[in-house]
């Protein structure tokens, strides 16, 4: 779950990239970086931390040029440290190159071993560096052809931005796992993971980059091609469920309206007769909770308040406060909850530990019943396409029934939206255009790495929190 942004043809390219990354901060908070081109050289700045803390005015001034790409990182391949921060920048026989990647390559380890056996030396743990080595070794005459040859060898999810001294290249994988959109700002072209980044800089949304499409922007203008064989579309359903910002338009649909429709469908499938109110687990559960309330006729209210000032680290008191971490992020509104039968809507349950703490918090605040409703199906399988989903052993729904999970989280009842209902809500009744592997186990690529057999055999244990 990373965010990428690029712009060509603007005198303040690095500053606008900084703003674009700020709008995409929800997609990754571990590190951020910008690489700018002045037509002759690439200049880069990458640090651990948040965009607003990293890119001060003096840093932006040291990134001159009319083209830039940027990246915010949430690690899925490679540990969280500076050497894995992107965009990755290298010099090779063809010149200078920077790359920003959203996604995950499922055959990266296999390719890395082959490249190392042939003498390649890797500087990071990131799967993205495999693409750089493949490009550097390509004998194709043009940069675009080198990129096509390199990507022809990789499998998995990638929305990629490449920046050289004189051009920007954007590519989306043939399944279209990760989003990528094209915008226009006066005479500049803009590319971003989500439309919310275009909105912030007041760029016009042109269209979504098509699956398997390559876009090249240089002094000759913009040109596009489809160099990869088409395949079944596999747009990530979890982008709509959780990842994307609600104000974005994703895969042709409003994220906010889609999440409300998920809530409506959830209410139709998993009603709670006689409930007094519907509340959300903020912030991601809010649109679905509103939709649930609309379809059920049960009033919506704010029963949980989220703190927006929780830092990345904190000091826990030695005499530990129960559910300390959750209480830092969420607080219950006793006046709303006391004596009420409450429907609480969340987007997903992964391990179950957070849901358990939330349910206990609501009951401690005076709720007489807590009915947990989830706007996605049970998450039973890990994701290999760019989401940091735990191993199957850690996914509570992989080996426990809905009733068992309800008992563990201490809810009076638990209900998930069905897989068919999810498809209906996102406009994919035939379930042919989205990847739902984390719910169904139906992966769209063949090679999922050597760890899969052990994970499939493992089952999670329910441990009291």
TrEMBL record:
Domain Glutamine amidotransferase type-2 intervals: 2-220
Keywords: 4Fe-4S, Glutamine amidotransferase, Glycosyltransferase, Iron, Iron-sulfur, Magnesium, Metal-binding, Purine biosynthesis, Transferase
Enzyme class: transferase
Pathway: Purine metabolism; IMP biosynthesis via de novo pathway; N(1)-(5-phospho-D-ribosyl)glycinamide from 5-phospho-alpha-D-ribose 1-diphosphate: step 1/2
EC identifiers of the protein: 2.4.2.14
Pfam families according to UniProt: GATase_7, Pribosyltran
Keyword 4Fe-4S found: yes
Protein name, per record: Amidophosphoribosyltransferase
Lineage: Bacteria, Pseudomonadati, Myxococcota, Myxococcia, Myxococcales
